[in-house]
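Supplementary notes (optional reading)

For those who missed the lab, this is the record we used. Protein: Nucleoside triphosphate pyrophosphohydrolase. Length: 273 residues.
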Amino acid sequence: MPEHDLIHDAQAGIERLLEIMRRLRDPDTGCPWDIEQDFDTIAPYTIEEAYEVADAIERRAWGELKGELGDLLFQSVFHAQMAQEAGHFTFQDVVRTMCDKMVTRHPHVFGDEDRDKSAQQQTRDWEAIKAAERAQKAQAGALEGVAPNLPALLRAYKLQQRAARVGFDWPDTGDVVAKIAEEANELVEAKGTADPDWIEEEYGDLLFVLANLGRHLGVEPETALRKASAKFTRRFSAVEAALAEAGKRPEQSDLEEMDALWNAVKAREKDKG
């Protein structure tokens, strides 16, 4: 099939997308913006698209999710095209690597292992397989392989997961709560010195332990904080709307009035819930 026909063939699937990406990056006839991009400039878009997928799922916006997943797929295709141009690997290498990984990590589905085991046991088996893979890659440390560029709260959560797997963990949630109190007191102490570096350090320690509490409670902190931020945005927007009905803007109000409106919004949400 001629390239032009492939690009305009709505039924062509992934091959059509790969050809579109190749044409966009063509140094003679492609798009100037796409041509000048590299891995570093595209990476932020990849992260952004992943979050937009998560946002669509959280809002149960299934119509939007199709488009967001397409945007995320395009990011993989973009990176693979640049890698092929540099002689690193191709998109088919990416697919082959993922297929091999999934087959290897699911011996109870694609091999001869017993499938009759709990989800918890399957999770433990999965981690054992990943540990063996890290050993083959000479990743000896328990914390190696946790991406430095993850959102800080999510990375803290994953680092603590890794440490817990080798026994470095509080045995009880109460111990974590006690540590939070300890770190909060140390933050207050640091604040009293007005030393910005010490304040920042202690504040970071407190956030780190709070992420650990989430792990003990079975709560992923990045998701919880994102939901809390969405709730704050929704409620504050309602406060702004109430003020607008009175002909006022937030800066023309005061904390007492806005707090009362906030509590009213909160009460309405609870009544609906």
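If you only remember one thing from this example: The chain is about 75% helix and 0% strand.
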